[in-house]
């Protein structure tokens, strides 16, 4: 790159890039760290019976926050969306940190989730407005790398804070850093355009989002039970989820219609297949092969490192076909998933997972940034918030469904209804099939021929 070429850290973008990456890192740290602090928090608040509710409340509110964030971004611009997101997320951190009982703690987690949903969508809107198309692959690569450090040290730092100064610092300790990240981004936010002719408010979408979020929450609750009540809750949750998602996702998402619908579907396929197995892998190595918690967690680290490395690699080639990178990402993910399933075959040790999960991480590092680039290129500015919300909703709901599937089958194995090795093989087979499906439909993620506006950029970035 010559000295005059724009870069992520040039004078124009430096503060914005650092601020955005700091916000991503802090949200990622909270996501990774909260599971470590949660057992101590619920014990101290005398809320062990409510243990799952802080996670469920966060997830439900996050889905609603994404839809509201898309509406705010399209109507008021990126500045309003990010300001509200950071303010609400910070309020949630504070509420959790000072909660005197479990009910207030759950409310705080819901506020956090709502703010996190606003932030996740606002980041896409900011990137779409503040960075030219050639810089977006590099920025998405950098945001992926911003998840690696929290993945590596988040649980350790949270454990140390919980032991030494108390679990509340896992929440309140982030507040100054969150505000610092916002302060770095503010100068750029002030210069971003506000929509001159904003679309009408999409109030009905918020109710559909609430229904979808409740559906996800019901499925999470049902996954913890193996009885007729759990089955009824699961069916009700699935119906609510399907009904809620239908108006929130682009038409043709399930059928992978060419263009934006396939981009959104690809995000769901990537996230669901990867995180569904990611949640099951440590249990497999521990219960099947007797690995220690540390040894069983190492493949997760190799996956995170592979993800970051591939993200950086694709960012160095902004002119590469995003569709081809997406297809390659799905293929690497499928091979990684299938290879990881081998660890459940009798007579095979757990060591292949150390290599195969790094391969799966490489696939995610190529696929996820490519999906983000394709979305921003194909989404017109007046609808970018709503489309970004759809992308994030597909991610969250697919991950919840696949992780829930793993959880239900593991619970059945724990109850003696199924062999654990068989569960691992079956689940890995399903997730491998999802990744293969993604590879088969990846070519449809290119913009339709002759599409006007931003879709023309998508054709350039995506290739044939």
UniProtKB/TrEMBL annotation:
PROSITE patterns: MFS. Keywords: Membrane, Transmembrane, Transmembrane helix. It is a multi-pass membrane protein. It is found in: Cell membrane. GO terms for cellular component: plasma membrane. Residues 16-440 form the Major facilitator superfamily (MFS) profile domain. Its main location: membrane. One of its GO terms (molecular function) is transmembrane transporter activity. Pfam families: MFS_1. The chain crosses the membrane at residues 20-42, 48-69, 81-100, 106-127, 139-161, 167-186, 207-223, 229-248, 260-283, 295-313, 325-348, 354-377, 389-417, 423-442. This is MFS family permease. The lineage of its organism: Bacteria, Bacillati, Actinomycetota, Actinomycetes, Geodermatophilales.
């Amino acid at each position: 790159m010559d000295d005059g070429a724009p870069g992520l850290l040039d004078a124009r973008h430096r503060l914005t890039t650092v601020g955005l990456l700091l916000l991503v890192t802090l949200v990622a740290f909270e996501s990774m760290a909260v599971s470590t602090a949660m057992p101590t928090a619920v014990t101290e608040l005398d809320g062990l019976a409510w243990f799952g509710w802080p996670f469920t409340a966060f997830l439900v509110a996050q889905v609603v926050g994404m839809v509201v964030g898309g509406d705010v971004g399209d109507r008021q611009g990126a500045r309003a969306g990010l300001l509200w997101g950071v303010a609400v997320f910070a309020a949630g951190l504070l509420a959790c940190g000072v909660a005197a009982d479990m009910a207030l703690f759950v409310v705080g987690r819901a506020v956090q989730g709502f703010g996190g949903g606003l932030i996740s969508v606002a980041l896409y809107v900011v990137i779409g407005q503040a960075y030219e198309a050639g810089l977006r692959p590099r920025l998405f690569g950098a945001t992926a790398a911003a998840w690696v450090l929290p993945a590596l040290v988040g649980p350790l730092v949270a454990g140390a804070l919980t032991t030494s100064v108390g679990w509340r610092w896992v929440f309140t300790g982030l507040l100054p850093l969150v505000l610092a990240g916002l302060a770095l981004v503010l100068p750029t936010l002030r210069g971003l355009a506000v929509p001159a002719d904003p679309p009408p408010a999409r109030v009905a979408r918020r109710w559909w989002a609430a229904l979808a979020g409740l559906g996800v929450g019901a499925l999470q609750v049902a996954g913890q039970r193996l009885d007729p009540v759990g089955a009824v809750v699961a069916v009700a949750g699935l119906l609510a989820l399907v009904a809620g998602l239908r108006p929130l996702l682009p038409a043709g998402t399930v059928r992978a219609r060419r263009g934006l619908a396939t981009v959104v579907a690809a995000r769901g396929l990537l996230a669901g297949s990867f995180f569904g197995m990611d949640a099951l892998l440590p249990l497999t190595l521990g219960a099947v092969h007797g690995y220690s918690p540390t040894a069983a967690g190492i493949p997760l680290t190799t996956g995170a490192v592979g993800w970051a490395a591939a993200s950086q690699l694709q960012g160095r080639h902004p002119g590469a076909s995003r569709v081809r990178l997406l297809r390659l990402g799905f293929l690497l993910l499928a091979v990684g998933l299938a290879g990881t399933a081998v660890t459940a075959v009798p007579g095979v040790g757990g060591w292949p997972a150390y290599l195969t999960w790094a391969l799966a991480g490489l696939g995610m590092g190529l696929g996820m940034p490519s999906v983000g680039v394709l979305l921003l290129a194909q989404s017109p500015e007046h609808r970018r918030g709503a489309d970004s919300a759809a992308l994030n909703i597909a991610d969250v709901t697919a991950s919840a469904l696949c992780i829930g599937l793993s959880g239900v089958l593991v619970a059945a194995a724990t109850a003696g209804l199924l062999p654990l090795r068989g569960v691992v093989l079956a689940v890995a087979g399903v997730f491998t099939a999802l990744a293969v499906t993604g590879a088969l439909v990846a070519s449809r993620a290119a913009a339709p021929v002759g599409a006007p506006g931003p879709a023309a950029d998508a054709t350039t970035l995506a290739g044939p």
